[in-house]
Predict the structure.
Amino acid sequence: MANIKKNDTVRILAGKDKGKSGKVLRVLVKEDKVIIENVNVYKKHQKKGPNREAGIVDKAMPIHISNVRPICPKCTQPTSFRRKELGDGKRVRYCRKCGETIA
Ligand SMILES: [Zn+2]
């Protein structure tokens, strides 16, 4: 597990948006996928519903977690986050590259 959470910034490693980075909007835990703002966007046909017009909308599709890498807010490098336990039993994430604790 990559320890990615909502609002993390990640770099995309594969697919049509390879090299881009963006903010995680949702983590689909069961599927090991994430939805990233403005990344992997496809045109979707939408049917007319009670609160929406019919038409074509842009929809960000989920990307498998193995195809993204979190970017550390401290050292700004693509990295991975690990977890460690603090003395009081709390678990925090930290950057594998610079060792800084990540919120
Ligand atoms: Zn770092």
Summary: The chain has one domain: 9-102. The two ends are 17 Å apart (CA to CA). The chain has no helices and ten strands.
